[in-house]
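quick one, two chains, predict together pls
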Amino acid sequence: MLLILCPHCGPRNSSEFTYQGEGSARPDAEGVSAREWRSYLYERDNTAGPVSEEWFHSAGCRRFLVVERDTTTNDISSVRDRAEV
Amino acid sequence: MADQSRYSALALLRHGIRGKAWPRIIDRHDLDPSYDVVIIGGGVHGLATAYYLAANHGITNVAVIEKSYVGSGGSGRNTAIVRSNYLTPEGANFYQRSVDLYENLAAELNFNVMFEQRGHMTLAHNDSSLRTMHWRAEVNKVQGIDSSVIGPDEIKQLVPFMDVSDKARYPILGALWHPPGGIIRHDAVVWGYARAANSSGVHIHQNTEVTGINVTNGVVVGVETSNGRIATGTVINCTAGWSSLISEMAGVRLPITTRPLQAAVTEPVQHFLSPVVVSGTLHVYVSQTARGELVFGASVDPFASYSTRGSLDFIEGLASHILELMPSIGKMRLLRQWGGLCDMTPDYAPIMGATPVKGFVVDVGWGTYGFKAAPVAAEQTAEFVATGMVPKLIKPFALDRFERGALVGEKGAAAVGH
């Protein structure tokens, strides 16, 4: 269990959140190749180390948050509302 | 080379009388400047691939590169369950070959792998999961796999202390019953393959970390390690947990996210549980080892991570779920819990075979089902590397299936709690 410091609700257990994970920019569906679409849909960096990822506070303020976390230690260094990033 | 005398009752007696230490099963070698095949990852997949390359195809100029000790990753952290009752014909056929290989493994490797086929029982607590159990049973039967749906009375006979009453919070309506399933000693499988590969002349390099993969014009030419450079035309990525990072070294991006899966074990008690019992609704599976400990596993953690630390919320959830099924074990004490890294793919099926980089072969994406598939994955990967032809059994699991939209939907049968 992680403790996530929600900017709106304060420190909350990670079970209150829905993990969205590593995001990638959606390519324009017009004229995109199968290769690029596969990359968008499925391929992930899967970084071991510091990452910037999205969590949705589904049982709280229902805001999308950008969390900076180290995936090798699970230490969280910053949590911000997506609208402010 | 170490003394690789056959293990037998007579050898045990002889060693006992002489009081001599048993010989090491893995020889130490210096890193050769080149190998025909370099296998990254000294777990059960890597060691078994080296064994089958030597045993089935006569390719022995092979190095297995392991950053820690053999079996230190997923091979020693799984819950040692073997079964073949999968949902798709591709999956069921593939895992059945693995069960076949496991059945003969002890004799083939001259190593007691303690395979106990005590049966595998997947409980259904609601109509939709009962429907899926019937679906799986019918798919399995068509493939010639021993698998059927049984009712609460038969469940009670097989596991007498299970709460099959309609008073349970999640009443048990039936179960998928798979008699050939069971458990195995996972460390013994690793050591058996390591010993057999070693005696075939394969070099197993422990405490050697791969730091880079050299690719020139889209072709693999070598591997950089913490102990020096190796020239090779064929690299097989047999890692779990770190498969994205190793593949990235060759410039291959994979559709994988790494998630920890936690497991736990109790103190040993007298034998009372024969089959492996699984509940998807309750996110738990349990079996009793030969030593008498109960081994519990669950679904993967709810977020990607490379940390193998256990968490309190996991053990709380696990305990409450298992007590729903078996109220009588409430006084048992947990000895330890741990986490292992699972490389999850979008369709809960592995990725095997060629990549866009020539000579870079993958045997990855093993999610929560890598251990039970190790013999067949290794046998087929070895055949692919030796012949250059993609064997029929692994054709559905190619990396390019994601581009073709030909996913193998195993989510319903590959793991619990999805």
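Chain B has two domains: 31-78+186-255+347-414, 117-180+257-344.
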